[in-house]
Amino acid sequence: MTPDDQLWSAIGDPTRRHMLDLLLADGAHTATTLSQQLPVTRQAVAKHLGVLDRVGLVRAVAAGREKRYQIDDAQFARAVAQLTSVGSAWDARLRRIRRLAEAIERGASQDA
Questions:
Q1: pLDDT tens digits, one per residue of 59-87
Q2: Domain ranges in the chain?
Q3: 91: Cβ contacts below 8 Å, ≥ 6 apart
Q4: Distance CA 71, CA 56 (A)
């Protein structure tokens, strides 16, 4: 799996996206504080944070016995840029499909 595939796999999980939303909105959190806001256990949150950490979307800073996780701004900006690029590519594809469908429709109405 390429690093980009790992990134998209990490972002593809709805629980991890919710965690990213919380980190973006509130700043740093521990696994414990995140688990209090999510319908999963602290252990599940810790595993999800491990995935996000491995792909570089979050980074951990020691805070006593726990780690505080925060968004890695550079990697997150890279992910946003990729998503924007993918969105633009799909918009272009959909415009081409629409033009083709309209051309087919015009051709069918002229034949009738």
A1: 999 988 989 999 999 988 988 888 888 88
A2: 3-111
A3: none
A4: 9
Q: Is the dihedral of CA 26, 27, 30, 34 positive or negative?
A: positive
Please tell me the CATH code under which domain 3-111 is placed: 1.10.10.10
pTM, rounded to two decimals = 0.76
Structure tokens, 25: 């909105």
